[in-house]
Amino acid sequence: MSEEIRSILKQHARLSVDVATIADDADLYQAGMTSHASVNVMLALEGQFDIEFPDRMLKRGVFESISAIRAAVEELTQGR
Amino acid sequence: MADFPLERALESVRVGTDLVEVADVRAAIAAFGSRYLDRVYTEREQADCRKVAVDPAPHLAARFAAKEAFLKVLRPSREDALPLRDIETRRSPGGWCELELHGRAKAAAERAGLSGFRMSLSNEANYATALVVAFESPWSAARGDTRTPSRPEGASIEHE
Q1: pLDDT, tens digit, for every residue of B70-106?
Q2: Taking burial as the number of CB atoms within 10 A of a residue's CB, which of A80, B13, B17, B49 is the most buried?
Q3: Is A18 exposed, middle or buried (0-12, 13-18, 19+ CB in 10 A)?
Q4: ipTM of predicted complex
Q5: How many CB atoms lie under 10 A from the CB of residue B55?
Q6: Which residues of A touch B40 (CB under 8 A)?
Q7: Partner B contacted by A40 (CB < 8 A)
Q8: Rounded distance, CA B41 to CA B10, Å?
Q9: What is the DSSP string of chain A?
């Protein structure tokens, strides 16, 4: 799953560094992801994993790192 | 005003601003279409932007900047969930814009003791920007004083 997330980040997050060099727990906002780019990341994740982020998950903490995104996607795909 | 002197009022002012590239909005519309529009902007915001220009992207970008500028005023924690559609820019027939909060954003602003929002939007071909100003009640819980707040109510009105 982390590789799929990295692929989405490469395409949509507009990071100022190569996503391949970023640790799973690195702060993506510190790495250059803008708020607008984080919306694109969210929409791409929804399309990739066939999920929808509910309002309660629309917070900075959910999209701030690869590990945080993975945890959120795992929560939304649990039980499939 | 005796218990709300000017100096204290100025100390309670919060300001937020944001800058958005119009090309980013255009790219998001191209990539995600209505999914992007409907997750970020209210129906009224979308209608307002279509009404004022053939190309709504610069106006949508200004509204996105307004949402982010509001969040900078609010100063939420990383765990505060705030859907962007809860932060709405309303356009008056005369072209003036005001901030209208809903749901979680409205509740969060009330908890923070914020009121008297004012906003200003601007855009040109490549960039859009927004400025949001609000007063933090000197009696809000965020300031550690639990006296019942007596906040001025008021709409924000600025021209786009």
Answers
A1: 999 999 888 889 999 999 999 887 878 999 999 999 9
A2: B49
A3: exposed
A4: 0.89
A5: 13
A6: 39
A7: yes
A8: 32
A9: -HHHHHHHHHHHT--SS-GGGS-TTS-TTTTT--HHHHHHHHHHHHHHHT----GGG-SGGGGSSHHHHHHHHHHHHTT-
Binning pLDDT at 50, 70 and 90, where does residue B147 land?
A: very low
Among chain B residues, the shortest Cα distance to A38 is held by B28
Q: Which amino acid is at B4?
A: F
Residue A38's closest CA among A4, A57, A64? A64
Q: Which of A58, A47, A9 is nearest to B32 (CA)?
A: A47
Tokens of A76: 């939304």
CB contact under 8 Å between B35 and A43, yes or no, is: yes
Tokens of B146: 């639990």
Q: Find the angle CA(A52)-CA(A55)-CA(B67) to the nearest 5 degrees.
A: 115
**pLDDT > 90 fraction of chain A, expressed in percent and rounded:** 90
Which amino acid would we find at residue B61?
A
Q: Read off the tokens for B144.
A: 């550690």
Q: For residue A1, what pLDDT is reported?
A: 82
* Separation of alpha carbons A40 and B94, rounded Å: 33
Which tokens hold the place of A69? Answer: 């995104």
Nearest CA in chain A to B60: A36
A68 at interface of B, judged by CB pairs closer than 8 A: no
The pLDDT value recorded for residue B25 is 97
Q: Is B123 exposed, middle or buried (0-12, 13-18, 19+ CB in 10 A)?
A: buried
Polymer length of chain A? 80
